[in-house]
């Protein structure tokens, strides 16, 4: 596995943790609010469900915090993009050709020559554009979500005791979902460049995590209610 493959796998994993924990956290409450049987089932074991919801909240803010960490030694959205830019040679046509040959055990597939004619080789500006797209949402995170992560999740700031509601009041579900989507879109654009030699737009990629999490969670809660 190449360095970019490893990096992409780890970055994708961080985004998945953030998205899955957020949508599970969100939908436990939404499903229960719209279904009396589910609500009553959760109430019967309120302690356990409160612990689960709290754990999901911590997982979400921790993963999101890692993705926007300012430490250049850490895997963040920015270091992911910058590492890809540094490794441009791994996105080249010869590198893609070598990977396709390796995946076919050294046998040249019949389609490969024609396929390579349409391969796009990214340049530094392509990755700089991804970094620029992250910028506005990084600012939103720093203003509205980093204080929660730093003062309530990673540490218990004495000054916030009794005032955590004021921190959460600055957050918006739609804002969180937009942040998660741009993080996902960056991964998807890089995946297409690396795996297929295709340049796609951020808006070509939609985050589908909520529908998967909601369906799985609803199945679990139905069993609990039964």
UniProtKB/TrEMBL annotation:
Family annotation (InterPro entries): HEPN_AbiU2
Q: Which organism is it from?
A: Cupriavidus basilensis
Quote the protein name from its UniProt record: HEPN AbiU2-like domain-containing protein
Q: Where is the HEPN AbiU2-like domain?
A: 2-198
């Amino acid at each position: 596995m190449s360095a970019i493959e490893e990096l992409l796998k780890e970055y994708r994993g961080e985004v998945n943790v953030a998205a899955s924990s957020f949508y599970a956290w969100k939908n436990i409450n939404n499903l229960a609010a719209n279904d009396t049987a589910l609500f009553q089932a959760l109430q019967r074991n309120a302690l356990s469900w409160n612990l689960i919801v709290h754990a999901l909240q911590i997982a979400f803010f921790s993963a999101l915090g890692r993705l926007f960490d300012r430490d250049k030694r850490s895997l963040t959205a920015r270091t992911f993009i910058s590492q890809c830019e540094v490794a441009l040679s791994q996105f080249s046509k010869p590198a893609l050709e070598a990977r396709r040959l390796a995946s076919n055990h050294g046998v040249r597939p019949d389609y490969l020559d024609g396929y390579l004619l349409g391969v796009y080789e990214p340049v530094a500006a392509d990755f700089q554009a991804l970094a620029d797209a992250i910028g506005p949402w990084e600012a939103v995170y720093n203003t509205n979500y980093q204080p929660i992560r730093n003062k309530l999740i990673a540490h218990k700031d004495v000054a916030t005791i009794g005032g955590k509601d004021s921190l959460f009041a600055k957050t918006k579900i739609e804002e969180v979902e937009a942040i998660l989507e741009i993080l996902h879109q960056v991964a998807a654009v890089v995946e297409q460049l690396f795996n297929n030699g295709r340049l796609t737009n951020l808006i070509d990629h939609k985050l589908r995590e909520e529908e998967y999490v909601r369906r799985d969670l609803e199945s679990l809660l139905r069993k609990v209610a039964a």
